[in-house]
Amino acid sequence: MLLQRISLWLSLGSLSLAGVIPRDAAQLESNSVLLERQDGACTNGPLTRQCWSSGFSISTDFDAKAPPAGKTVTYDLDISNTTINADGHGDKPVMLINGKYPGPVIRASWGDTLVINVHNSLQDNGTGIHWHGVRQLGSCQHDGVPGVTECPIAPGKTRQYVFKCTQFGTTWYHSHWSAQYGAGVVGTLIIDGPATANYDFDLGTLPITDWYYKPAFELNEQALHSLTGPPLPDNILVNGTHKNANGGGSYYKINVTKGKKYRIRLINTAVDSHFHVSFDGHPFTVITSDFVPIKPYVTDQLAINIGQRYDVVINANQTAGNYWFRVGYGTACSNNNILSSNIQLGAILHYSGAPDAEPTTSGVTLKTDCDDETTLTPFVPNTVPTSVVPSAGELDLNHNIDAAQNNLFTWTIDGTTQIVNWNQPTLKTILNAGNDFGNNSNVHEMTTSGSWYLWWVQTTTFIALPHPIHLHGHDFYIVGKGSGTWDGSTTGLTFNNPTRRDVATLPAGGYLLLAFPADNPGIWVMHCHIAWHASQGLSVQFLESRGSIGGAIGNVDGFNQGCTEWGNYWKPGNHPYEQTDSGI
Ligand SMILES: *[C@@H]1O[C@H](CO)[C@@H](O)[C@H](O)[C@H]1NC(C)=O
Ligand SMILES: *[C@@H]1O[C@H](CO)[C@@H](O)[C@H](O)[C@H]1NC(C)=O
Ligand SMILES: *[C@@H]1O[C@H](CO)[C@@H](O)[C@H](O)[C@H]1NC(C)=O
Ligand SMILES: *[C@@H]1O[C@H](CO)[C@@H](O)[C@H](O)[C@H]1NC(C)=O
Ligand SMILES: *[C@@H]1O[C@H](CO)[C@@H](O)[C@H](O)[C@H]1NC(C)=O
Ligand SMILES: *[C@@H]1O[C@H](CO)[C@@H](O)[C@H](O)[C@H]1NC(C)=O
Ligand SMILES: [Cu+2]
């Protein structure tokens, strides 16, 4: 630590005379001007987490620039059909990545290029992996959405995904093929970079999911044809493990040493669950919302909807012992069979030296709503022009029940449910200069490169549910949200440094106003991240700067080969199963 301090002093040059060494969150904020000037002049360490490399720090706008030419980091993922007993309840049929749940932690640094070879070892399913929240600037063909940005990976085949890490922070990756991520095709991804608060150690990712005892594809069929809502999960898993309702299984242990500060990367990887979390006796500092660094704030609980991430720093400064990491349900919108048992949901924060025992601690009462956090201020401020308001693009959410198809329940946007064609992904049509995207593509075009667009997601169905809305290819700026119908005015909207992230919750029965600039040529889906709702068609596609896509994305050999391989597998007369849902 001494060394880091010295190098910071030296590198600050004459500024060091002022004796300013940003050490904690509050100082960091007040020193942001200084940080701009010292950009790159210091080394990242426990007391200098704002630093990164020459020309890059926590003050850098990662939408504007990323470190050039980092390392190339390669991973091999193999997806197979197997069983797992994650919570002691018994074996369950799943599809896993490299035989593990969750799959391997993929880790690279800001500016690196990730090369990930995904092999489909399934017999009777396609696949395709989406790197959630990754901007894919100029690499839309690697976004991993079957029927949109690629043909699915056929059984026995491999696809290579290549993308540059222009952002840093925490995310996850998952199959975007039908209901497959619910079957277990999920892992986490860390891109190392600077941070808005200091910590001693990085404990890595802590994915939290709901867990069903029945196979996901069976449940998906039930969800598609249920008039009373989807089936309930049976348990949760924290980092892949949990106790079950009968007391079998085991809690995940987060090990800490008294006197140290730890970064923990919380991720909701669920199918259909909104969580609230807390650490007994340990208020914590929140430093990101999704990939976006925020002005740090201290809280004692957090709401995490599906797909959302929060990086937090906890200070292990209590009496050495065992403390609950509590997980609670947003019961206003989700539920779980485990809630009727008296099993505590969560994991154990375990101090070294303490006995191996379950905690007896008490903590805060967790909230039960399904609302997003409201105090998320991006550390690097950006502004949305108010001139986007008059041209807001309305997306009306409704639902449809088709009695002729055994009460098939679908969600519609402007009257159309999305159903992709795995053999003819939208990107293929675009690259062939075609215009016919099919009747169920929900394509919205953004023609003016570089301009801001505002999208107005408006509930029009009487089914008043909150939906975690996720956008690919961008972080959106949350300009407004509310219950009821937006009146079109700017009253109550935020244009000056609004929260930006890649998942935001549409309030039950209400609206969401999302802005982003058309600065990433490609085809990007925006969908509800409740897996059943995505299967039921709750999604749209944004066709951005159509004429520039071919030039922006470069090599499409892998894309073309993938479509040839899929076409040889999935052809008339050769469907082991049919596509029964949206396909994503
Ligand atoms: C998984 O294995 C089962 C049993 O062998 C088989 O019936 C099923 O088709 C396989 N599923 C996939 C997706 O390969
Ligand atoms: C969760 O498990 C992964 C994989 O073993 C590990 O890298 C990570 O550190 C664990 N998370 C925490 C918070 O302990
Ligand atoms: C945490 O400590 C326990 C012993 O109390 C040990 O069994 C476990 O492997 C440790 N976990 C990690 C992730 O180091
Ligand atoms: C423990 O750490 C928290 C967060 O940094 C701080 O607010 C609190 O005062 C500390 N408590 C003690 C007993 O040092
Ligand atoms: C698409 O809609 C048009 C107009 O309603 C209809 O004529 C056509 O058959 C539809 N195409 C498909 C493939 O369903
Ligand atoms: C994928 O595999 C699952 C499990 O074997 C099966 O239920 C489903 O129908 C398959 N889907 C397709 C489209 O092949
Ligand atoms: Cu939804």
From TrEMBL:
Domain of life, source organism: Eukaryota
Protein name (database record): Uncharacterized protein
Organism: Lindgomyces ingoldianus
Phylogenetic classification of the source organism: Eukaryota, Fungi, Dikarya, Ascomycota, Pezizomycotina
